[in-house]
Specification:
The complex is a heterodimer of chains A (about 575) and B (about 90). With about 575 residues, chain A is an alpha+beta fold. Helices cover about 35% and strands about 25% of the residues of chain A. Classes of the chains: A alpha+beta (about 575), B mainly alpha (about 90). The interface between A and B is medium-sized, with 33 and 26 residues.
């Protein structure tokens, strides 16, 4: 009996719990149905008000500095101004001041906002100067938003524009060294989670998911002051002679570090509207030319290496015209019987051609290949050309003759500068570098031949008969070679009135420290010889460079003073 | 329930309370530190902006073109020619 009663009580309690649970579940179901079908708009509105999103934290792009640590390109924080169009329109504030600060008319701004009012967010102006951004903030217009970004400023302006290059609007390297070293410079943007409302206002920062990784600074081998001087002197010569373009390179012959590299015309990297494909080309590396007479020293090296010639071997260049299988090679003057040395000093094409025809067919080609022609300099610069040397076995007799004075081959100005380093250093080929780092040059030629040619090149500048007289620098010995190249015309054959003027020089000749190569493309004021157009630019820039690098004069006409006050007559080291 | 069990349960309750309080404390601490970090970041950006502006200003002042113009026009400096130059030999 007792057991039956207990059983009954038990059933009653179970039923009560069961009913309660069912009731609770039904209530819950009812509430859920209510939320899903009836209150959905209210909840959606509430949800929109607070949203957790992930936004990126911009990383600072590394600075580019010159060899002394002076900045050439830097990134500083700026604001990008955005707007929620609908909100700005609804705020009914006076937009005239905002328009003025954004550099627009009020009507244009209103039109922009109205025409894109269906959009959630629009960008009004990118990368605004912080002072202007602050003024906009002070206007306190509802719906205007600010986003932190970095803007690149180029402190060298147009002087190093093609070399340093530019970044695109997303701060990624687009041209020049900015592109070459982009991986080191760019850094990595971070990420953070924020809570924001539907009006894009940040309500609160939640957490940092990934810290931004700052970009690394790059120390260039460039000397900013020398770069300025080189560009200025080059540009003024290009303008003076109404030339199409020009390039200049100043280089350390031992470790291949570029001290200055400029091209004209250039562009202002701080002004995007100024960008033009012609101004953006780093012509010293991207433009190919037939290098002309600046190749003759290598012909003479090939001659010396063959043991068939020495510097005083006589060559008959009369009557100033020489026919090689239907092609005519000319000298400016009839140089008559002339020595190998004078072939360089007077820049005789006939002398050079006769040497070439006497040598093995591949002799000059081999030397040119050894000093780096026809091969990329491995600098990695975007758009750098490799130039071309023809297969020596396929060269005709005429082509062999003209190769000896720099035709039938193609080279960049940088390759010419690198090849002259071999003459300056006694036979070592350097590795080209834009960074301030030492590289080891490789021996490619014996010092006896390169030193002999260096002494002759000194006479090209110092001798009154030499073609490079205008390259002289007071107080210093200079070695160099001029080049005047007829341009190949698009209609076939060589043009009679379009020239390229080149000068490649080494200073001080007694103890070479610097190489400077200048090229002026199509001077059109009647004068076109390399010795007249390019050599004066060399002289000016090299003089500055020698002083800049504290290189002592090696040829002083006046008396030197000892520290004790006594005077001594100058004597060359 | 013997004394041992009572003790264990009390200890667990106590630890639970401590853990709950620490969660609250560290969450608050985290919030505060994050706020500080945000403030410092803001300050960092602002200092970076100022530094950038100063660098631009300095660069404008030391631009070789400006120095050259000032030397020539204001200070009336000229480049010495060779006759005006003497080489001093330091023993």
């Amino acid at each position: 009996m007792k057991r039956r009663k207990a059983k009954k009580t038990c059933c009653w309690q179970q039923n009560a719990v069961f009913v309660a649970v069912i009731f609770l579940m039904l209530t819950l179901l009812l509430k859920i149905t209510h939320i899903i079908f009836l209150d959905k708009h209210d909840y959606k509105t509430e949800a929109r008000k607070r949203q957790i999103t992930t936004v990126s934290i911009p990383a600072h792009r590394g600075n580019i500095v010159d060899r002394h640590g002076e900045p050439i390109a830097i990134s500083t924080p700026v604001d990008t101004i955005g707007a929620v169009p609908k909100q700005v329109i609804e705020s009914e504030k006076d937009l005239s001041q905002l328009a003025q600060l954004l550099g627009k008319t009020e009507d244009k701004l209103k039109h922009d906002l109205k025409s894109r009012s269906h959009k959630k967010y629009i960008i009004l102006k990118r990368q605004v100067n912080p002072i202007v951004a602050q003024k906009i903030k002070e206007l306190k217009i509802n719906g205007i938003h600010f986003k932190k970004e970095y803007k690149r400023y180029y402190l060298g302006g147009e002087t190093a524009s093609q070399l340093v290059g530019i970044t695109d609007k997303d701060d990624e390297g687009q041209e020049g060294l900015e592109k070459l070293y982009n991986a080191s410079l760019r850094g990595e943007p971070g990420k953070k989670r924020i809570l924001k409302d539907n009006l894009r206002h940040t309500l609160k920062n939640i957490s940092i998911l990934k810290k931004p990784k700052e970009g690394q600074d790059i120390i260039l081998s460039i000397d900013r002051q020398l770069q300025y001087q080189a560009y200025r002197d080059l540009k003024s010569q290009v303008i003076r002679h109404n030339a199409l373009s020009g390039s200049i390179i100043v280089l350390d012959p031992y470790n291949g570090q570029i001290f200055a590299m400029a091209s004209a015309p250039a562009f202002n990297p701080n002004k995007r509207s100024d960008y033009s494909p012609a101004g953006m080309r780093n012509r010293a590396m991207t433009d190919l030319m037939e290098p002309g007479s600046v190749i003759k020293p290598f012909t003479v090296i090939a001659a010396l290496a063959s043991n068939r010639f020495n510097l005083s071997t006589t060559i008959d260049t009369s009557p100033g015209i020489f026919k090689v299988s239907n092609y005519v090679i000319k000298d400016i003057h009839n140089n008559g019987q002339t020595s190998v040395e004078n072939v360089l000093i007077k820049s005789s094409n006939i002398g050079s051609a006769k040497i070439a025809l006497d040598l093995e067919p591949n002799a000059i080609n081999t030397i040119l290949h050894k000093v780096g022609f026809g091969q990329n300099t491995q600098s990695g610069f975007p758009g750098e050309m490799s130039g071309a040397l023809k297969d020596p076995e396929k060269l005709s007799k005429h082509e062999r003759a003209t190769l000896s004075f720099g035709y039938n081959m193609q080279a960049t100005l940088l390759q010419v500068a690198r090849a002259y380093s071999v003459i300056a250093t006694g036979g070592y080929l350097p590795t080209i570098s834009f960074l301030k780092k030492n590289t080891k040059p490789v021996r490619v030629l014996p010092a006896t031949h390169t030193n002999a040619v260096l002494r002759v090149l000194e006479k090209v500048v110092s001798s009154d008969e030499g073609t490079g007289k205008k390259a002289r620098i007071a107080g210093y010995t200079v070695a160099g070679k001029t080049g005047t190249i007829k341009k190949y015309s698009s209609s076939g054959g060589y043009s009679e009135n379009k020239y390229i003027s080149v000068f490649a020089g080494i200073a001080p000749a007694s103890n070479p420290k610097l190489i400077c190569v200048v090229m002026i493309n199509e001077p059109s004021k009647g004068v076109y010889f390399g010795g007249e157009i390019a050599a004066p630019v060399f002289s000016k820039v090299m003089e500055t460079a020698l002083r800049k690098f504290n290189i002592s004069p090696d040829m002083f006409k006046h008396k030197d003073i000892h520290m004790d006050g006594s005077q001594v007559a100058w004597s060359r080291k | 329930m013997n004394m041992k069990n009572v003790f264990i349960v009390s200890l667990l309750v106590f630890l639970n309370v401590i853990s709950a309080i620490s969660v609250i404390f560290f969450k608050h601490e985290n919030k505060e530190l994050y706020k500080d970090l945000e403030q410092l970041n803001e300050e960092f950006y602002s200092l970076q902006t100022t530094y950038g502006r100063l660098q631009l200003e300095q660069s404008a002042y030391i631009a070789p073109g400006r120095i050259e113009r000032l030397a020539r026009e204001k200070l009336e400096m000229v480049k010495p020619n060779q006759k005006q130059t003497k080489r001093v030999i330091v023993p």
